[in-house]
Amino acid sequence: MRLVLPLLFSFAFSALAQDVHVRVDPAAQHADPGNEDRTVFPTIQNALDHHPWPGKGGRIFIEIAPGTYRERVIVTQNHPNVTLIGKGSSPADVVITNSLNARQAGGTFFTETVQVNGDGFQADNLTFENTAGNTGQAVAIAVRSDRAIFKRCRFLGHQDTLFADYGRQYYLDSYIEGTVDFIFGNAQAVFDRTEIHELSPSYLTAQSRTSAEQPTGYVILSSRVTADEAALAGKHFFLGRPWRPYSRVVYINTSLPASVAAQGWDPWGKDSNQKTAFYAESNSTGAGAKPSARVAWSHQLTEEQTHQYLPDVFLRGVDHWRPESEAAKLP
């Protein structure tokens, strides 16, 4: 018995931590209830609905063949630790797309192509897209996931492209484009080495922190803000405006184009927001870096102050999450 028990314990432990790997291929047969032993599915949602379940603590890896997937995808709150991996040579090879605006859907929060509610979500080498265009609010992805990681992803839309709404989120080596508050919500998020592309003279971020005690906010780190200069036609856009009074956005070591408005930030028509919003920069570069011209209620951070907004500090939390090392594990 002394020899058998350790073997049994080892087997049980490995079973608990077992991951599940499945594939999405449009040529596969659709899976219906009762087909949960399948490992190849024709759509992403079909794979989410019918994949085998991992052991406790395990992760579900869904590998997606190159293609354009015209579907709406929902990762439910009781569906944690899902990883979507695009198997193309670039994020443009795997596109999840839909076209729905607020007027059609009955409100902004019903328009998203992808909705993520399960904690521990990860995506690598994918595109999330809403093709509704210049027709009002049209969300490409809504993220309400704690400890979420997006690596080498593209987020394409127009107004309200990325709803970074809840939890700690880390975006790395990605591309985000849109106009009018196209990164919005109340997540605690870092955008690292990411290109953020403004399509028109409008507002880049609309962060929505509701009190000074909340740890939420957006950090744009070592990134590049670009703009469609032809569409702007000599006009300017703002780095952000406060969707809620305690909005917090920080740009660190980020290149800004000349089309950024010299004042940088807009109070959204309420002078009271100037007293509560926290907007800051540290070592901005490029033609749009004009610290002396910024609004008086914004901040230029010292090196010491900047440290608290680095990914492994700002996103640490009580569980000591290390987003940079977790992202390094993705392919």
| Helical residues, percent | 10-25%
Category by helix and strand content: alpha/beta
Strand content: 25-35%
The CATH superfamily name of the largest domain is Single-stranded right-handed beta-helix, Pectin lyase-like
- What is the total domain count? 2
Average pLDDT figure? 94
- Low-pLDDT ranges: 1-16
CATH C-level category of the largest domain = Mainly Beta
Largest sheet: 12 strands, parallel
Compute the number of helices. Answer: 8
Question: Could you list some keywords that capture this structure?
Answer:
single chain; 331 residues; alpha/beta; Pectate Lyase C-like; 12-stranded parallel sheet; 8 helices; 33% strand; globular; disordered N terminus
